[in-house]
Amino acid sequence: MLGPVETASVSPVFVGRTDELDTLNAALARAGAGEPQALLVGGEAGVGKTRLVEEFVTAAGRGGAVVAVGGCVEIGADGLPFAPYSTALRALREALPEEFAAAGAGQEEELARLLPELGEATSSRHDEQGMARLFELTGRLLEQVAEAHTVVLVLEDLHWADASTRHLLAYLLRTLRTGRLVVLATYRSDDIHRRHPLRPLLAELDRLRAVRRLELARFTREEVARQVAGIIAAEPDPAQVDDIYERSDGNAFFVEELAVAAWEGCCTGLTDSLRDLLLVRVEALPESAQRIARIVAEGGSTVEYPLIAAVAHLAEDDLIEALRAAVGASILSATPDGGGYRFRHALVREAVADDLLPGERSRLNRRYAEAVEADPTLVPADARVMRLASYWYHAHEAARALPAVLDASVVARRRHAYTEQLRLLERAMELWERAPEEVRSALRPVDYTEVYPPCGCDPATTPLRYLDLMAEAAVAGRFGGERERALKIIKRALQLLDEDPDPLRAAWFWVQRSHLVQAQARGDGRQELATAQELVRGLPPSEVHAEVLAHVASWRMLHQPGPDALAAAERAVQYARMVNAREIELHARLTLGGLLIDAGDAESGFAEMFHVKEDALREGVRGVAGRAFVNLPSALQAVGRSRESVPLLREGIAFTREFGLRDAEAWVWGNLSDSLYAIGQWDEAADAAANAIRAGHGAKPQGSGALRLAHLALARGDLAGAARHLATADARYGSRDPMPQQSLRVARVAIGVAAAEGRIHDARAELSRALESGFLPGTYRYAWPLLLAAATAEADARALPAAAADRAEALGRLRESAGKITVAAPVWAAHELWIRAELDRAEGTDTTDAWSGVVTAFECLDRPYDLARVRYRLAQSLLSPGAARPEGTTGGGENERDRALELLRLAGAVAGGLGARPLADAVARLAQRARLTLTRAPQEALATADPAGALGLTGRERDVLRLVSAGRTNRQIAEELFISPKTASVHVSNILSKLGVSGRGEAAALAHRLGLFPADPVAAPAAG
After folding, report:
1. What is the C-alpha to C-alpha distance for residues 951 and 606, in angstroms, rounded to an integer?
2. More confident residue, 280 or 165
3. Do the beta carbons of residue 421 and residue 409 sit within 8 Å?
4. Which of 559, 556, 625, 558 is nearest to 570 (CA)?
5. What distance in Å separates the CA atoms of residue 368 and residue 374, rounded to the nearest whole number?
6. Contact, 622 vs 123, CB < 8 A?
7. What is the tens place of the pLDDT at every residue in 66-102?
8. Using 50, 70 and 90 to split pLDDT, how confident is the model at 947?
9. How far apart are CA 992 and CA 1002, in angstroms?
10. How far apart are CA 750 and CA 657, in angstroms?
11. How far apart are CA 843 and CA 807, in angstroms?
12. Residue 599 has what DSSP assignment?
């Protein structure tokens, strides 16, 4: 709870703000109903933000809400990383200890970055997802704590917030979707100048529909009169109210100051400056109290009593009297816990601080620093290092400031406050030349750098170098999203390395530059990696060398897969083992496994990838494990083992969610969408694609989700939706870093959309662009569907007069391209047959034998939609009088009509179940033209070898029908099959339609009559 302001000048009557308080209370009511609320309260300094929040949270607390308040802390000009969250979470933990412990279970090491008392923060290697991981876990913690209790989280003084605090607030307000939670933040609007870092955040949050922004206006004259009356406990003189209103302009704090001055007999015309009025009140204090005010003004927004005593050098009785005078004059107030003091209003503190002389300010900071060094217990442990660094820096003593600032940078890194780490490292670089040589020579990289490898030197005996600081700062900028600052640092570092060559260090900086140019969409990073590889060529094995090779192999796998990529991966593994760089080795082995599969050695490749996944999980290397859950199922999908990949992907979702690996989670959701699409679970595939967009932190993972939605929309006949999602995917992927796994898939959907809209020339143009660079090994899984889409487009456009021009050339290019691609997996061998049949259809030479071969190939695969499509084509061929057949047979005979009818029934059932409207419509039109009746009595299925298949049930629908027959409810079916109740309901509806029955009981009876599940040991559902 916010503590009461212990001064006589505060009006006991809460004045005005009725509309604002109603808005806050309405938000609290909505939060109590389970809808999270976010509000930003802004206003100029002194306008009454704190008083409004006090009134609101006091009432909320009386109503049963749990209130947790944290304020952004200012030390000089510095903010403490995540300070408001640490304070608020501490209060939340004290108020709800059991709920807090349950919500944070298993993540204590990570959450300790915000709340150190939870334990020692994990020392795992940092990466670009570290901050996002911490944010995800924090949001999940708040949602879970707020499941059973209404929680009001108050963050005060955002204008002082550090960058990490701002980033976490933006994340929370974008992502919180459940829980009885109100997030309320305040800021001083008059401080938000054009270049203030809070300004872009406010603009971003204004675009979020879930965020409500309140700007507090100044008081009207009537409200000023009520405020003055409350302060002086009497009806004020109207002339005096007019004077106070005119001078204060309705600012609540200045009204208080002027009212007190008038009540105490001061002349309100004493000075024309309200700021001077504040100083006059300070200057009216005894000299000792003035001195304490100056000390507290420079110590930070809140200063502990023992620290004030250590800096003031006053006898205890004299110190207490000085503090009593300052509190009695409403200059200072005690903190709610009674452990320290702060200015009653920040405006007074700023006026006193601004009045300090430069030498006086430096002296006070030096005294603070000396006091904390002499007795570290004077300040809280989690703020000690940061405050010491700030005090020494503002004392302008480089020799003491440099080590202190570096210590603080390490603390910031451990908390994932990378932007603050970067700011501190930039200060260290500023102090470097001013610090004495003996101080610099005593510093060690092992103490102050983590991500920068020692390049063969002994970090325990080698002095810290300026380049080491630049390297650490570059990575802090990269991890914290300050990429432009990082690029400038790297540019300067490479200039220094030109003057004093060091190949290993230069190679390391070029690798970092490669990451940054890709992240900034300025290029694909190839040239930077090539430069790094050239720099380490011929050098002895080192961690840098292994890292360069690992990044080169990974880049080539994504951009230029083939023998060179495989060789780089093998060397990276070898070098990493030589220098015992375990994490680099695991990354390189994972890349190697994928490249071995692309090269045709699937057995070795899968074995390697499975081993890496298990090693990474066992050793706690979460970054590699997350990547394994992306790449391994993707490789299984690449060879047609889609159903096998699904449980692995679900395991990956659980893992990446547990550890906050948001981009990895998004990639896993995207791959799950692919696998579910392939095995005919389209509703779940759509959900997975939407989750990929929701979970993705970066643009490309979000693009993957949008592309899957485009593919689904196209298959379901929603051309407008397909085009919209395709444009989103294209924008997210960008054009500066093209990868075949993205560009070929985009081209495939673009060809499908163009063909469906009758734009065959646009489809051909898309194909031409895709064929420009050819198909490298590793891209075949994307090439086959692309070529199929183009061949189908040509065949469907055969009757269009506009398609005749250039058709022969287009078909020739397709045949040539298909002939160059290997068919190492059965699924792609089936695609080859399909493409050749479509090309024959485009020329009017397709045969029933060819389509029969395609159907046979797909009947061996678990791809119901593909099978339905080729069954439709075979039926079309059987019913076509002009289709080529074995000698002596003609089209349309009774046997062929019966066979075509069965094929159309099967294809139509699948199309209807999946919602594939274009295929369903095509089946219906063909049956109508051939005068075939697609519907039949369910009893006809008795004579079939596969009754469920003859009824058109998909694999998932069989699973659902089995549970329906066992008496399961939709909710029980959903729990057993890991789907939503809504999806289970859709499946049941589709089953009833296909069986031609009106209810679940009839469906169960029919399933038993047909013997669909003769000996299925499904346990009966529990009673109740």
Report:
1. 37
2. 165
3. yes
4. 556
5. 10
6. no
7. 999 988 876 554 557 888 888 899 999 999 999 999 9
8. low
9. 9
10. 32
11. 9
12. T
- Give the separation between CA 78 and CA 386, rounded to whole angstroms: 9
Query: Model confidence over 596-640: pLDDT tens digits?
Result: 998 889 999 999 999 999 999 999 898 899 999 999 999 999 999
Backbone angles phi, psi at 591, to 5 degrees: -65, -45
The encoded tokens of residue 477 equal 């900028």
Whole-model pTM: value is: 0.77
CA distances from 753 to 188, 196, 790, 911 (A): 51, 46, 11, 19
Residue 268 has pLDDT above 50, yes or no: no
Q: How far apart are CA 159 and CA 347, in angstroms?
A: 13
**What percentage of the chain reaches a pLDDT higher than 90?**
52
pLDDT at 454: 57
> In this predicted structure, what is the pLDDT of residue 163?
86
What b/e string do you get for 655-685 counting C-beta neighbours within 10 Å, with b at 16 or more? bbbebbbbbbbbbbbbbbbbbbbbbbbbbbb
Q: What percentage of the chain carries pLDDT values higher than 70?
A: 90
Question: Which of 609, 524, 600, 533 has its CA nearest to residue 563?
Answer: 600
Query: Phi and psi for 861 in degrees, rounded to 5?
Result: -110, 155
Question: For residues 611, 612, 617 and 622, what is the CA-based torsion angle, rounded to 10 degrees?
Answer: -170
Q: Are 326 and 371 in contact (CB under 8 A)?
A: no
Alpha-carbon gap, residue 164 to 972, rounded angstroms = 43
Say which residue the tokens 């659902």 belong to.
960
If 0-12 CB within 10 Å is exposed, 13-18 middle and 19+ buried, where does residue 55 land? middle
498 residue type, one letter: D
- Is 48 or 484 the better-scoring residue by pLDDT? 484
Radius of gyration of the chain (CA): 35
Residue 714 pLDDT: 96
SS3 per residue for 146-157? CCCCCEEEEEEC
CA distance 370 to 364: 10
- pLDDT tops 50 at residue 127: yes
The secondary structure of 875-898 as a DSSP string is: HHHHH-TTSB-STT--TT-HHHHH
Per-residue pLDDT tens over the stretch 498-523: 999 999 999 999 999 999 998 887 88
In order of 878, 900, 916, the CA distances from 855 in angstroms are 13, 13, 19
Contact of 705 with 696, CB cutoff 8 Å: yes
CA distance 44 to 274: 15
Is residue 628 within 8 A of residue 620, CB to CB? The reply is no
Torsion angle in degrees (nearest 10) through CA of 834, 837, 838, 843: 170
pLDDT of residue 868: 95
Give the list of residues 6+ apart from residue 127 with CB closer than 8 angstroms, or none: 479, 623
Helices (H) and strands (E) in the chain, counts: 50, 10
User: CB burial class (10 A; 0-12, 13-18, 19+) of residue 111?
Assistant: buried
pLDDT, residue 631, reads: 95
Report d(CA 638, CA 922) in Å as an integer: 29
What single string gives the DSSP state of each residue in 167-194? HHHHHHHHH--SSSEEEEEEEEGGG--T
Q: Is 862 helix (H, G, I), strand (E, B) or coil?
A: coil
Q: Where are the alpha helices (DSSP H) in 355-482?
A: 358-374, 381-394, 398-414, 418-432, 437-442, 445-448, 466-479
Is the distance from CB of 371 to CB of 378 less than 8 angstroms? yes
Question: What are the structure tokens assigned to 471, written together?
Answer: 């390297």
Name the least confident of 265-274, 543-552, 680-689, 743-752.
265-274
Exposed, middle or buried, 147 (CB in 10 Å: 0-12/13-18/19+)?
middle
Q: How confident is the model at residue 1021 (pLDDT cuts 50, 70, 90)?
A: very low
Spatial distance between the Cα atoms of 626 and 666, rounded to a whole number of angstroms: 11
Tokens 């061998």 -> residue: 829
End-to-end CA distance of the chain: 45
